[in-house]
Amino acid sequence: MLLFLIWHGAFESPISPAEVDLYVERYQVQHPEADTNNLRNFLEEDDGKPVVMVNNIKLYDTPIEVNGQSFGATSEEALSEYTSFVIPYLIKRGSYPLYSGNAVFESMEKWGIENAEEWSSGALMRYRSRRVMIEMATDPVFDQFHDAKLSAIEKTFAFPATTVVSTGNLALTVGLGLLSLAFGMQLLINSKENEIRD
């Protein structure tokens, strides 16, 4: 159980000021044209708790070339190349998809936003911490796969959120599973001891 809690982020600490400077510097080296003010604020406000990224995605009808490279015959194939790196990378670091689903109709309600009628899918990705998010974003290997994402996705918007209400909880599920296993083993031991006495 302790190993699970460590993996899941129970003992994660907030990002330190020195780490903030390091991560921002790394990001600037990789993306010299980017404005890093929002990134710095996001990291400085870290509380060490998990973050859920809310994603809306619209795929291209046909994937585009990025930096002279193609990533598949369909946008789904191109996006799969991206997720083939991202998902294992995140799972190793206590992060995982909470939900992913395909759109079945255009937006039913919208205001204050343009070009928001049509979407391909929506997803919720649980990150163990903001540290995991920025470590992935500044990993040089990530850039190679990020081009596949750009090839597949026509438009998207994503924002980080903290959990207020959730009907699903992996930590609770694992805890209850281990508790049930312990009770089952104790019942088995008691049964064996009773057989020996008889």
Question: How would you characterize the overall build of this protein?
Answer:
The chain is of the alpha+beta class. The chain has one domain: Alpha-Beta Plaits. It contains 7 helices and 4 strands, in the order αααβαββααβα. A 4-stranded antiparallel β-sheet has the order 2-3-1-4.
Short description:
The chain is an alpha+beta fold.
List the helices and strands and how they pair.
Elements: H1 2-8, H2 17-30, H3 37-44, E1 51-59, H4 75-91, E2 96-102, E3 121-127, H5 130-137, H6 140-152, E4 153-161, H7 170-197
Antiparallel strand pairs: 1-3, 1-4, 2-3
Helix pairs in contact: 2-3, 4-6
CATH topology: Alpha-Beta Plaits
> How large, in whole angstroms, is the Cα Rg?
22 Å
| Fraction of residues in helix | 40-55%
Q: pLDDT under 50 segments (min length 5)?
A: none
The CATH class assignment is: Alpha Beta
Mean pLDDT level = 89
Largest sheet: 4 strands, antiparallel
CATH hierarchy: architecture: 2-Layer Sandwich
Total of DSSP H or I helical runs spanning 4+ residues: 7
Q: What quaternary form is this?
A: single chain
